[in-house]
Structure formats: structure tokens, C-alpha cells
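In the previous lecture we treated proteins in isolation. Real proteins rarely work alone, and many bind small molecules. This record shows how such a complex is specified: first the sequence, then the SMILES for leucine.
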Amino acid sequence: MYIYLPIKIIPSNIADEQTHSVFMDAFIQNNRLDHVSQVMGYHPDYLRNFLTTQNYLLREDGPLPYDYRHYIAIIAAARHHCIYLVKLHEQEFLLRNGNPEWLKGIAYAPRKIQDLYEINKILAHRPWLINKEHMMKLLKTPEPWSLSELMHAIILLTHFHSLCSFVYGCGINAELDIDGFTYSRSSSSSSDTDSNSENNEVGETSNHSHAQQMSRDEGVGLEALMEKMKKLNEMSLEETSQEELLKRFHSVEHQSAEITVPNSKKSTPRSELMRYVLDDEFSYTDFVTQDKVNEVPTFRACDYSWDDHGFSLANRLYTDIGNLLDDKYTMAANMTYYTMGDNREVDTSSFRRAIWNYIHCMYGIRHDDYDYSEVNQLLERNLKAYIKTLTCYPERLQKKDYDGVMREFKHSEKVHVNLMIMEARQQAELLYALRALNRYMT
Ligand SMILES: CC(C)C[C@H](N)C(=O)O
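The predicted 3D structure, ligand included, written as C-alpha cells:
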């Protein structure tokens, strides 16, 4: 198993004041300064939003009992074989007086939780398959979920599926005191980690000259990228017909389907994980290559958007969660330092938008006011492959993928990209779930 921590964690004693104060809050909430918070500490404003939401979902008043919440986190994280999150929430589950029997596996959990498994699986890998029948099955059974409970459960599932992407993307591993956690590193990944930590003083230097040379060789350097961004920003909005925009969307979709993500893991997942997993073979398939019989049409963001529809439904069923998620999405999508590698005063909005919309595109979601040719202009194939792996098959990401992509970016910028991947993915899953719930209710 490849577990590594490529990004040197910011030591809290030297972090700036703002970071330090968020770290203190994280410590008070979690009784530890967990590795996720430490890596997110590169972006303290975002970290604050993330922690507020996660704390609300797990620890504040809400529809579901506390043990259920952690158990749902476990089954969500197990879909991506994320031992780090599974172990963490097994511990929290026990601290919340959860029944230890349930930790023997999903078959030992109450019927009601087992019923949730189908949507756990679908949301994690092919959220476009969620429909109102799935909702009905949960809401109308002998042991029904209430609408609010279901809303809470869905948000927990999507939160933890997408957190797996962040965990793998940043190579986060377990804190030493997590019970029962032992991991093996392959010799190559361990030596990678060592050489990496030597290079990275507080994680914020990157191997620039080497990277620049490599990128120049490949012709995809930062300079070329910034040039393209500048051109796009200067371009006046040319009139492009809806047909042409649609064609460009489909072309990006098809190109994405051509990127295959090898599964090079040698070891099979551990039995401690597999006891929470049913139907392990079920994984992401490209949206465009679905079987034609049950074909699902493209999700048009203008017909069901987060701002106009999802947000208020979430808020209605689970007080305030819409606001919290909205703050988090807005922060993740808009956060900028106007930098790129060593360059300052750069308008990075087109690059960030391309990443966000590319992720939605892989889930069949189309924003029809967006020109998808920008995705092709700004995201080189290597970066697309990285985004696809981390979004759709995070457990397959390897350290060399992290090192090989965005070579001239600083570590904090790679973390920034990973944050966007996590949030855009969560939003995509949630949009499908909320639309299905809405269809059930109307
Ligand atoms: C992901 C990064 C390229 C973001 C960039 N550093 C910015 O401040 O917008």
C-alpha cells in the first residue's frame, strides 16, 4: 500500500498567527491536531470553513445520533479503501458509545444503516445513477429514514467520499496513536518520502529549477500556461452558438474518457476495510461510456443548480447546512493569492474555473454558460489525468503522480488544487442526490 506524506506539515509553533488560531480551534474540536487539519493549514481561511462544517456534521445538534454519524463516515471512506479515515472514525464511534459489534462489519450494523449502502456505493462512484426510487426505498420501509435524517446521511456520505480524495492527494497517513494502525510502505515509497522531506523545508520550497527544466522539455511550462490565461482573460466574449458550446463540452467529455487510470496496487485491500465494503468491483465508469440502454442525460446545471435549488433544499431539511456548505464551496472556488509558482499578481480565475468545471464534466454535469475549450487550453493531459485519478479513483494515486504533476507549483498550491477537487466532487455528488430527493418530494 502506498501511504506517504509528501507535504511537510506546518509545525504549529512557526505557523503565522491566523493559522495558529485555527489550529487551536481544530485541537479543541478534535482533541488532536489531525493531519488533515495540519495540511489544510496552508489555507487557514478555508480550514476554518471546513472545520466548522465538519464539526457541525459530526458533533453539533442534528437529525442523526452521534454513533450513526461516525459509522456513516466509516462506510463512506471504506468505499475508497481509506484506512486513515476508517480508523479515525472507528475510534470516534467508540468514544460516542457506539456498539463495538458494528465494527465487525456492515453486516453487524442495524438494518437501517445497511439500507443506506446502495446510495453510498452509487454516490461514491456513479452519482448520476441516483434516482427518486432510491430515495423512496429509504423513506418508505419498515424502518424508514426521515427526510432530515436522510439529508444528514447524504451530506456525510458525500463529505467523506470527497475527503478521501483530499487524503490521498496529500498523502496523509495516520497519527501514531490511532489504534490498530500499522502500515507497510514499499521500499521505493519510503525512500521517496525520505528524500522528499530533505528537500522540503517547511514544505514550501519546490524543486523549481529541475521542474522548470523538465516542463520546458515537455513544452508545458508555467510560463506557457500563464500566457494562455492572460489571452483568455483579455479575449472579449465572442458569440459562440449553443450548439458549438455543447460540442466543446462533449469533446472534453470524450477526451476525458480516453484517459485510463491504471490500478497498479499490488496488495489487496485489508480485511479490516473490506468488512465495510459490499460490491467492491463497483467503481467509476466514464459518464460518456454508459450503456446506451439506461443512458442518463447530461445534467444541466441551469436546470438544477446549487445556488438556486440545492442550497435551499439542504437548508430546509437540515437547518443551516446549506449556508455552511455554501460558504465552503464559495471559499474553495474563489480563494486566490494571485500567485502561481514564483509569479505574483496573476489572475488565476480561468485556471481554477477550468479545474472545477472539468470535475463536474466527468460526472456529466454541464454549465452551459461555460466554454469548455478553456479546459483543453489550460489543463494539460498530465494534469487532467491527475484530476481524474484523484476525483474518481483516489485510492489509485501514487506519490509519483503527485510529484509529476504541476511541477512548478508550490506545495501549498498543490494542496489548493486538491481542495478544489474535493469540493467540486462533493458538490457534484450532492447535486445528483438533492435533485433525486427533490423529484421524490414533488
Ligand atoms: C492553484 C493555484 C494555482 C492557485 C493560485 N496560487 C492562486 O492564488 O490563485
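Summary for your notes: Residues 336-340, 348, 351, 413, 416-417 surround leucine (CB under 6 Å). Residues 181-219 have pLDDT under 50 and may be disordered.
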